[in-house]
Amino acid sequence: MKKLFFALAFSCLIWTSKASTTTTTDSKKEEIEVSINLIDVKDDQVLVTVKAPKIKTNDITFSLPKTVPGTYSTDNYGKYIADFKAIDSKGNLLTVTKTDDNTWVIKNAKALVKITYLVNDTFDIEKGRGFGKDDVFSPSGTNIDAGKNFMLNLHGFIGYFQDKKEIPYKVTITHPETLWGATSMIDKDGSKTVDLFEMPLYSELLENPIMYSKPDYTTFMVDGMDIQIAVYSPSGKFTAENITPEMKVMMTAQKTFLGKVNSTKKYTVILYLSSMTPTDAKGFGALEHPTATTVVMPEMMPKEELVKQMKDVVSHEFFHILTPLTVHSKEIQYFDYNDPKMSQHLWMYEGVTEYFANLFQINQGLIPETEFYTRMAGKIEHANTMNDTMPFTVMSANVLTEPYKDQYLNVYEKGALIGMCLDIIIREKSEGKRGILDLMHELSNEYGVSKPFNDEELFAKITSLTYPEVGEFFSKYVSGPTPIPYYDFLSKVGVTKITQKTPEGIFLKGQVPYIGVNQATKEIYVAPNKELNIFYSTLDLKGGDIIVSINDIPYSLDNIYDMITESMKWKENDPITLKIKRDGKEQILKGVVKFPYIDTEGMDATDASKANLRNTWLKG
User: Distance between CA atoms of 18 and 59, rounded to whole angstroms?
Assistant: First the structure.
């Protein structure tokens, strides 16, 4: 999973600114049949019918997940279920008791024939821009927009019977003829309004999201893998064709970097573009699956920025093919959806994945060396703002609860840096012959998709496959409380810390906006009662000024992303003309662009004697 907080900042200024085994019964294969009706949608709810297998106990428990793999959060998908009914063969209702947000106990279960319930979607009620306390992160959420779009993360629609997760599921989905389902599953029904999917286990079913919308997709092959890109753009601003060329280049490079790892033959990228209206998705980022990635982004983004963010998030999610989808612990292999036990090894599942998502780009020539250093220096800066003495293994094992939950985002920062340091140690000790990718290949061969490792044994296994120094690193810096001296490790490859002048954003300082938007008029205004930077003072811009246009381009809420993206292209002393409205009167302000600069931490290659080892680290 990867959450994007650049989008959080933009949505802040927009929405808060105000002016596997199979058993048999009676010689027939036991299975659970589920029907989802996407045609007769009423009150923004979808009807789900579950045909029960043969129940041999007086009571049976039916649940929807409390949490699902890859989210590291408690989401309680049962909260979105309404009108739950258990029915016998004569149509009579059986007694049902709801014992918590996600669980129903059915009495006289031997007579049970089917369950019906209505599903409400999560996009409609996101309050905290997708990151609020009670929000479901949008890429793991659900959408019901009758006749237009259905985002079926199936853990939000389909539940399981106690002790029945290990039998096959047969899912029938009826949908409007105008909508097509993007998924990596195979439709076994040839009709235009019915899709039939069969999966051997509940866990495998949940790993296959489906998005129904007007058909808009592309396909291409990469080293024997069939890649599908599907897009839902409510206004039609973007199509799959718009982003496919860049995605193909990136995913081809990823496959080349990964080498022999190939755990799937088909991979689907599902992109949902949010209209940013109050009832649409607001949590931007992605969630990985073994054969798919669901991505949610704001539709108002310019194409250039959308492609850039897609490359970052999809590259991260795609590398999850390696871990945890191939290399993982028993906590993940036997995941308990309603009483989850979390693994100690988020440093690997998310951290190493994030490290690879950056390393492969320098390795495959997609970014220059300086860009890679800038990214790693940024991660050091961000990691230093987090709790640097909290053992990473402890945070990982307890990530669903406070105070550890608040440190989760460090998996993308310190977690990636842990991967970097391990890579450098292995390169140094092997004289450049091996790196962390080689280690992950060895772990893939040792374990694999169906053979999990014991959580507490992984560090010893990795040490046995590498060097004692790796074990010492784990003990001191990953399971221990000692902050990592990153530049001690970087010095091994001739990279040192530097201080550099970095321009701050014109309209955003980190996550703090210098501008706001009037929701009623869609006008962009300079934030009042705030100390403005040199860009504003040079042009005599004042708090409350309404920005009408910049360099003759009109701007409003509808194209605010274009304005912010365009500002990233400006250079010092570029001429600039603004039309503003102050106290109800329009004015023209002319001048030059001036950036506010701050001292930031960076890194650079300064030791030529380490060039050979550095090249093997970056180029393999």
Answer: 53
Distance separating alpha carbons of residues 86 and 115, to the nearest angstrom: 5
The residues that bridge with 106 in the sheet, in sequence order, are 60, 96
pLDDT of residue 562: 87
pLDDT beneath 70: ranges in the chain: 2-28, 127-134, 262-263, 511
pLDDT at 125: 85
N-term to C-term CA, the chain: 26
Whether the pTM exceeds 0.85: the reply is yes
Beta bridge partners of 602: 498
CB 160 within 8 A of CB 202: yes
Shortest CA distance to 213 belongs to which of 280, 271, 261, 257?
271
Longest CA span, the chain: 84
Question: Tell me, what's the pLDDT at 512?
Answer: 79
- From residue 292, alpha-carbon distances to 36, 286, 306, 405, 428 in Å are 21, 10, 19, 26, 36
Sequential DSSP letters for 33-82? EEEEEEEEEETTEEEEEEE-----SS-EEEE--S--TTT-S---GGGGEE
- Parallel, antiparallel or unpaired: strands 266-274 and 225-232: parallel
3-state secondary structure of 402: coil
Q: How far is Cα 477 from Cα 422, in angstroms, rounded to an integer?
A: 11
Q: What is the pLDDT of residue 13?
A: 46
Res 123: pLDDT: 94
Give the rounded distance of the alpha carbon of 563 from its chain centre. 26
| pLDDT for 25 | 39
Q: Please, what sign has the CA dihedral across residues 68, 159, 198, 172?
A: negative
Our measurement of the distance from residue 591's CA atom to the centroid of its chain's CA atoms, rounded to an integer in Å, reads 41
Measured between alpha carbons, how far is residue 532 from residues 14, 283, 502, 517, 548 in Å? 19, 29, 17, 17, 19
Q: Which residues pair with 554 in a beta bridge?
A: 549
Instruction: Please spell the DSSP secondary structure of 447-462, one letter per residue.
Output: S-TT-PBPGGGHHHHH
DSSP three-state, residue 186: coil
Distance of alpha carbon 4 from alpha carbon 309, whole angstroms: 9
Strands 266-274 and 292-298: parallel
What the chain holds in terms of domains, given with CATH numbers, is: 22-202 (2.60.40.3650), 322-495+607-620 (1.10.390.10), 505-595 (2.30.42.10)
Q: In this predicted structure, what is the pLDDT of residue 505?
A: 84
Instruction: Check residue 442 and give its pLDDT.
Output: 96
User: Residue 231 forms beta bridges with which residues?
Assistant: 271
For residue 94, what is the DSSP state? P
Percent pLDDT > 90 in the chain is 82
Rg (C-alpha) for the chain, rounded Å, is 26
Give kind and range of the element (H or E) at residue 437. Answer: helix 436-446
The pLDDT of residue 190 is 86
CB of 344 closer than 8 Å to CB of 330? no
Structure tokens at 357: 């998502």
